[in-house]
Amino acid sequence: MTTAPELRGPRVVLAPVAADHHARLRAIHLHPDVAEWWQNPADDWPAAPEPGTIRYSIFHDGNLIGFIQWYADDDNPDFRHAGLDLFLDPAVHRRGFGREAIRVLCAHLIDDLKFHRLIIDPEVENTAAIACYRSVGFRDVGVMREYSRDRHGEWKDGLLMDLLAREFIR
């Protein structure tokens, strides 16, 4: 993969994660309202690169407010798709920034990189995230039982959702 371009929406900017973003991203990741839905970060996160994953910091008015990433499963062109994940600072929840960041990234993945299908897999209990993903066109595929362990080692169900390029709500 090549260097990730900066992506812009009406209110948010997705900038490739840089060293000066690390402390702020880690602080957001460790906030209890974010940590509830994410596994414990590795000691070197986000400094350590994750091969095959493109990571962005989400900015609003010059302030770092969150994180979004995507990865591709493109080994076989007949099954090619991209997956994404994100989190936002709880101080900016319910203001549309997550929805906008998803739309900006989805537009890039569909329009520029020609992905036909995108996936995301929130925990079944993360109803706010699921509502956000549905608002841009993601549809429920099914529940993946005991899909991932939370930070306490408890198995949690995940909801597999996908979005076809032709269903994307801009």
Automatic annotation (TrEMBL):
SUPFAM superfamilies: Acyl-CoA N-acyltransferases (Nat). The keyword Transferase applies. InterPro entries: Acyl_CoA_acyltransferase, GNAT_dom, N-acetyltransferase. Its EC number is 2.-.-.-. Residues 12-166 form the N-acetyltransferase domain. Keywords: Acyltransferase, Transferase. One of its GO terms (molecular function) is transferase activity. The keyword Zinc does not apply. It is an enzyme of class 2 (transferase). Belongs to the acetyltransferase family. RimJ subfamily. This is GNAT family protein. It comes from Rhodococcus globerulus.
